[in-house]
Amino acid sequence: MAVGLLTEGINEVIATTDHNAAPMGIINRNGSLHMVLFRGSHTARNIARDRWVVANFVFDPVIYVRTAFDDLPEDAFVSEEINGMVVCRLRDVEAWAAFAADVERSGGETIVVRLTPLKEEVLGLRLHPVNRGFASIVEATVHATRYVRNRDPWLGRLIKHHSGLARKCGGSREWEALELFERYIADLTRE
Predict the structure, then answer these.
(1) pLDDT digit string, tens, across residues 89-135
(2) Distance between CA atoms of 144 and 29, rounded to whole angstroms?
(3) Which residues are CB-contacts of 164 (< 8 A; sequence separation ≥ 6)?
(4) What is the pTM of this model?
(5) Which positions fall inside the DUF447 domain (predicted)?
(6) What distance in Å separates the CA atoms of residue 188 and residue 26, rounded to the nearest whole number?
(7) Phi, psi of 84 (to 5 degrees)
(8) CA 2, CA 139: separation in Å to the nearest integer?
(9) How many other C-beta atoms lie within 10 A of the C-beta of residue 118?
(10) Which portions of the chain are predicted below pLDDT 70?
């Protein structure tokens, strides 16, 4: 069941909070929308404090990698006013959706946030054929954000697998994202 722009399952987006961007999964199960966030992340702190999040629909693998490991410059963001509340979205998106965000459960390492749609806007959609290289960049990035926390060898193997698929199936933008990804991972694993 679709809820606005979100389809059933886990929708990978670039989530923005107060001038912060990070790849996140928004879970849509039977029309109920949630996010599971690592406690202590900028995104989790901002959502708990401000009680909103914006899902940015972006199909650039470099942005997924950059926002997973680094901050974007201030000029990458645009403010939007919704019912007297100012939220922050990415400037270069095809579509965006803003949500009220309420912490529903809080565990040892994660918090579960319930989302309520506030507004969405389609700015200019393009057709995006399924690209295994792009999907593999997203998967490798998800695994890497966990790998840097616990150095689990299984996650390391998954990263290697998805990096190989991105190299084989991607185009120039995926290869650029992969090169950036490998630099971030090398720097983070040296720490």
Answers:
(1) 999 999 999 999 999 999 888 999 999 999 999 999 899 999 999 99
(2) 25
(3) none
(4) 0.93
(5) 11-122, 131-181
(6) 26
(7) 80, -5
(8) 23
(9) 18
(10) 1-2, 191
